[in-house]
């Protein structure tokens, strides 16, 4: 488990199913994501079973449940796809509308990056997002990611072609900038597509 002043990043639990189904059924949350709404309780339960079976130390996707410490509720999730070489990963994130715009996603992402770069010794973390998803793009840039490319009309999703923004963050950049150390989470420590 990872901790920040306001958050716990932990493994998903069965009791998270209703909240996961609720925020992933929000059309605003799902707008740039690969899934369609609504997300049924059965579909959410299947996701939680898959998430709980994951291992953050092994290649493949691992989804952190992001829990608000003071209120004790699930507010979002952060996914990490560790590559086979265990030296790089892909990152994605999803947060309930109610908890957006308060720095919680930035805090959670910084905690995960700190874990990947400083404890586990990864060299690179990549992320991509729909080019229309300006909030996610700003978050990635805020925590130190560099925009590395634009894939025009690359993804067919929800009946339309969309552009993808590609981002990368190297361990050297993270260390040089002291990335995340002045964020709210600095004191603490999906199979979903990473289009966040």
UniProtKB/TrEMBL annotation:
<dbReference type="GO" id="GO:0016747">
    <property type="term" value="F:acyltransferase activity, transferring groups other than amino-acyl groups"/>
</dbReference>
<dbReference type="InterPro" id="IPR000182">
    <property type="entry name" value="GNAT_dom"/>
</dbReference>
<dbReference type="Pfam" id="PF13302">
    <property type="entry name" value="Acetyltransf_3"/>
</dbReference>
<dbReference type="InterPro" id="IPR051531">
    <property type="entry name" value="N-acetyltransferase"/>
</dbReference>
<dbReference type="InterPro" id="IPR016181">
    <property type="entry name" value="Acyl_CoA_acyltransferase"/>
</dbReference>
<feature type="domain" description="N-acetyltransferase">
    <location>
        <begin position="7"/>
        <end position="172"/>
    </location>
</feature>
<keyword id="KW-0808">Transferase</keyword>
<protein>
    <submittedName>
        <fullName>GCN5 family acetyltransferase</fullName>
    </submittedName>
</protein>
């Amino acid at each position: 488990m990872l901790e920040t002043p306001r958050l716990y990043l932990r493994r998903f639990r069965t009791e998270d199913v209703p909240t996961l189904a609720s925020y992933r059924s929000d059309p605003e949350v799902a707008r740039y994501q690969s899934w369609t709404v609504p997300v049924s309780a059965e579909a959410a339960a299947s996701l939680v079973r898959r998430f709980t079976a994951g291992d953050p130390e092994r290649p493949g996707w691992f989804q952190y449940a992001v829990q608000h410490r003071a209120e004790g509720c699930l507010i979002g999730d952060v996914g990490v796809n560790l590559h086979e070489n265990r030296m790089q990963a892909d990152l994605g994130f999803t947060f309930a509308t109610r908890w957006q715009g308060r720095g919680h996603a930035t805090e959670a992402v910084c905690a995960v990056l700190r874990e990947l770069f400083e404890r586990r010794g990864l060299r690179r973390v990549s992320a991509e997002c729909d080019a229309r998803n300006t909030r996610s793009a700003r978050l990635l840039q805020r925590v130190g990611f560099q925009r590395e490319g634009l894939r025009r009309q690359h993804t067919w999703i929800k009946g339309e072609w969309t552009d993808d923004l590609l981002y990368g963050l190297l361990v050297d950049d993270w260390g040089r900038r002291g990335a995340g150390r002045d964020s709210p989470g600095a004191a603490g420590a999906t199979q979903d597509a990473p289009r966040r």
